[in-house]
Amino acid sequence: MITEIIPTPKKTSYFQREYIYNGETVRTSLDILLGEEEYILEITFEDGITIIGGSERAVYYGECTLEQIIKQTNGRLPAMKIEDEPKFAYRGFMIDCSRHFFSVDELKAIIDTMSRLKFNKFHWHLSDDQGFRMEIRALPKLHTEGSVRKGSNFGSVRSKSKYSGYYTREQMKEIVKFCSEHYVDVVPELDIPGHCSAIVHAYPEISCRGRKVAVKTTQGIFKDILCAGNEKTYEYIYKILDEMCAIFPSDTFHIGGDEVPTENWTHCSECKNMMRENRLETYDELQAFMMNKVITYLERKGKKVICWNDAVKGDNLKKTVIVQRWLDRKNQTVEWANEGRKVLMSDFYHTYFDYPYEMTPLKKVYKFRPYLSNMDLRGRENVIGMECCLWTEHISSNSHLEYMLFPRACAVAENSWGYGRSNWRSFLKKVNNFKYVFRQNRIHFAPRRDWNPLPLRRLFGTLKFLYKIKPRVKEN
Ligand SMILES: [Zn+2]
Hints:
Elements (H helix, E strand, L loop, with lengths): L10 E10 L6 E4 L8 E6 L3 E6 L2 H18 L2 E9 L5 E7 L7 H13 L4 E5 L1 E2 L2 E2 L8 H4 L7 E2 L4 E2 L9 H13 L3 E8 L4 H6 L28 H17 L4 E5 L6 H4 L2 H9 L5 H18 L3 E5 L13 E4 L6 H7 L4 E3 L2 H4 L10 H6 L9 H5 L1 E8 L7 H8 L2 H10 L6 H17 L14 H14 L8
Parallel strand pairs: 2-4, 6-7, 6-17, 7-12, 12-13, 13-14, 14-15, 15-16, 16-17
Antiparallel strand pairs: 1-5, 3-4, 3-5, 8-9, 10-11
Bound molecules: zinc ion.
């Protein structure tokens, strides 16, 4: 029988006969000649099952593959050999825990499921205008005050009740440990210098106006960003990053850089001084200059840094940065990659899972290739992988979060592993076979009728969503 593995392995060969699996321990071993994520799974009538991997993570991937085979065949395994490794080194998923907060156990169910789809990066969005969610001992008002907002006015999610929550240091360490047991690296994000209302609420002295602002209750882009000209801003950022580095051992950090309205910088003498002293001509350059200081700080600690593509607008951004492309009307990301810099693909129209299935159906996600037109061969080689993003302004419950993520994440798993992108019917079978993992983890995945709505339903669903999310309250 033919097995249906998700994500599709690089190479599968079948042989005569079969092997009856009775739950015995599988022989595994490491072979340093194999790639970091490369494994060979062999099933023979004579010798049973062996998995050889280039690392413990690779062996785990072999075990995940084997489990799917066992489930599909009820233990009557075909004699076969799978030689497998991913095309992309970065296979990520982002969860926004600022707009809505998800418990450690809720995150664990998702992380376990994603790891079995061979995702290897959990990008944890922990700070934003609507709530700061990390316990930071050196600056405690961040979590005691920055984590609390007066209500929620996101259009589709409305409530007058106070909303709060943050992860204690112990809880963050627990997630890191759980992730490491599942061979997932945590990529924590401190979003600067925009999306910082919660930080400015707690410590107004590091904004240009120095005034306390509310932790936001609506979605949007807010002008009280961090002051780029004040040394204290950097002192505070470094304090936060020091504590984050002590908790998150991953070699990759995210420092945001998206949607930065520079209006307040234009009225700030300290920002203007900083520009003069450093011969910066535009506010985009000031942003890149600011990010560069923070990037250098992290690089000295041995970290690689990711920024959203908005940060490339100032062409002085450090070239060592990995640019995460989400929405880039000027297509600067293409240039970035073609010039030999690294790019991570999170295309807004294909991998933003906060948008409903009517706008981003499963098949559209499945068809997505993580390359951009005008990317040359070198540019393509600089795409390190893909990440699906789940922003949560409109997602207030765990079951809704899971519904939006699954099974669309399966398509991202398939595309970022890289070999199963040409057979839609077989992909559907694979998703179906993977449902046992959803059930084990009590994941509320979307039912099949919602995966690919027909055109009329897509239209109405889109209009309904756009109407529903329209903010009814203005806030600044
Ligand atoms: Zn300023």
